[in-house]
Design brief:
Elements (H helix, E strand, L loop, with lengths): L8 H12 L11 E10 L4 E7 L11 E2 L2 E3 L7 H13 L8 E4 L13 E9 L12 E8 H4 L5 E8 L2 E10 L2 E4 H14 L2
Amino acid sequence: MRIPLALSGRLSRLRSHLDNHRPAAADDPSLIWAAVTVVITPDPDSILLIRRAHRMGDPWSGHMALPGGRRQPADVDLVATAIREAHEEVGFELGPKQLLGGLNDVMPRTPVLPPIAVRPFVFLLSARPALVLNGEVASATWIALDDLLQPERHNTVQLEVAEESREVQAFQLDDGIVWGLTERILSNLLEYLRD
C-alpha cells in the first residue's frame, strides 16, 4: 500500500489520517450502494473532478462530481466498484497500491433522490494520467487543493433543486459549483488536509 512519492506535508498528513481512519459506514440493507474515487496527484496537489453529461432520468445530470457509480453484482466489494467506475468514466486504471483509504459514507439529504449510500475512496497517483472520457462524462478537470482550501471558495449558495430554490453549502470554483454529495465528500477530505 505504500507509494514511494515525495509528498507535500498535507498529503503526508492525509496518508497518516487515512491509515488510522475507520470510515463511518451506513448499515441500512435497503440502500443502493455506490462508490466514488477521490483521485489526488502531487505537484501541484490536485484532485480530479468531472462534469456529468446531461442525460434524461439522471438526477445528477450536469453536476460537478467525482468519478464513480453504483455497485454491480460482479463487483467483489465497493473498492472494486470505485476502480471499475473510474476506468469506465475517465479511462485509467487504479489499483490497491494507490489506495490510501476510505472516507465516511454519504447519503442524499433530499427524498427526491434514490435511497443510496456512497462510499468515497481516496487514491494517490504519482502523476496525472491521460483521461479518456466516456459518454457519461461531459468534461474533467484537475482542481488544485489550494483552491479548495481557500475559505472564500466554500460558502452558501442559492440553487434550484427539484424545482425549488434552496440554500446549499458549495464550493464555487472556476469550473463550476460543487454541491450536494460531492461537496460533503470534499469537506470531509479537507478536514484531513488543513494545517
